[in-house]
Amino acid sequence: MPKQEFPSPQKQIANEQLWFNTKKVILPSILLLTTNTINNFVISVMEERLEYRVYTYSAYLLKRFGKKVFRVGLSTGKTCPHRIENGGCVFCNPHTFTGEYQSKDLSIKDQYNDAIPRIKKACGDVQLLAYFQDETSTYGDIEFLKSKYNQALSHPEVIGLVVSTRADYIDEKVLKLLASYKVPVTIEIGLQSIHNRSLEFLNRCHTFQQTERAIKMCGNAGLTVGVHLIMGIPGETFDDMLQTVKWVSSDKYIKQVKFHNLVIYKNTKLAEMNNIPIYTIDEHIRNLGNLIPYLRGDIVVTRLFTSNIRRSQIAIGKYEGNKTKWMNYLRKYLYKHDLNQGDETDVKYDCRKFYK
Fold first, then answer.
1. The domain spanning residue 332 has which CATH number?
2. Has residue 9 been placed in a domain?
3. What gap in Å lies between CA 220 and CA 216, rounded to an integer?
4. 134, part of any domain
5. Distance CA 130, CA 27 (A)
6. 2 CA to centre of own chain
7. Partners of 259 in the beta sheet?
8. CA within 20 to 30 Å of 100's CA: 3, 42, 65, 132, which one?
């Protein structure tokens, strides 16, 4: 076995110096390349955020309040009068949108005690908007409504009020009350469509013209106005939906919009009808992607999909995935086709106002 030779201390030092001198050149180059690659990757990922293409509610809240804000769903405890008097809308099953803590006829304080700890646990230290979300939240005697709204705004962490309602339950008394609060107040109105034939099919029992007047009244009262739209109403084409979005963009009072994909729930009149066509999630995403460029760039998109879809409640249709995945599919669609909110309007969405 040959004798193993070890380098002298001097030679070993020389070899190590050579290795070090070589690495002084190579390592910084590797580090520079790695850093640039990482930076480019991060920039690439950042450039593909949904918020860079659509004026989302989270971007609006950050701009408006400068901090994380979350809506707390509340109920006045009143049943929708339209459901009592006219049987309700054909798509409506109240159990699909009323939270457990809202359906127990609890006081506002008890609803807060149930909801806020859950929100804090999930979202951290956020401030809150009181959101009267279910049923028709302007229905009732004015003193009754005043009591509910005042209780909601008395919570120390609540910094604003959101009220969801129907166009035919908005009057001067309600508007005067809402306008009297010294916090931001948003009123959401169920527009659904500008086509009266669609409203008749949905059994809304009001016309587009009534909604148009209600929106104007709310805007003139100084309230922030939002509208709900249903995408995929049977009988409507893409052009019909486009006409609705274009009208929303043309109305100076509308500041927010919620898109809902039509969902057919069990125990609804819609579920009893035969051969009702319904868009898949993929079709809804394509429709949204091609409608968004016609939505004025300064209108806040507070929702893109019907929320809280529970598969056990669905009568017709399949809904693979979840809202997070759907939002991601929409994001990819917008980037693939280079679509941005407001591209086809006079007011294009500029994300640089929110993300530096």
1. 3.20.20.70
2. no
3. 6
4. yes
5. 56
6. 77
7. 229
8. 65
Q: What is the DSSP letter of 35?
A: H
The pair of three-digit structure tokens given for residue 148, joined into one six-digit string: 């509910």
CA 13 to chain centre: 65
Structure tokens of 293?
A: 């460029």
- The count of domains in the chain is 1
**Residue 14 falls inside a structural domain:** no
Element (H, E) at 84: helix 81-86
Q: Are strands 264-265 and 314-316 parallel, antiparallel or unpaired?
A: antiparallel
Q: How far apart are CA 109 and CA 152, in angstroms?
A: 8
Read off the tokens for 213: 């007047």
CA–CA gap between residue 9 and residue 21 (Å, rounded): 18
Find the Cα–Cα–Cα–Cα dihedral 331, 336, 342, 344, rounded to 10°. -150
3 falls within a domain = no
Q: Residue 162, CB half-sphere, CA atoms under 13 Å: how many?
A: 20
Residue 212, both tokens = 């148009």
Phi, psi of 99 (to 5 degrees): -70, 155
Domain that holds residue 344: 53-353
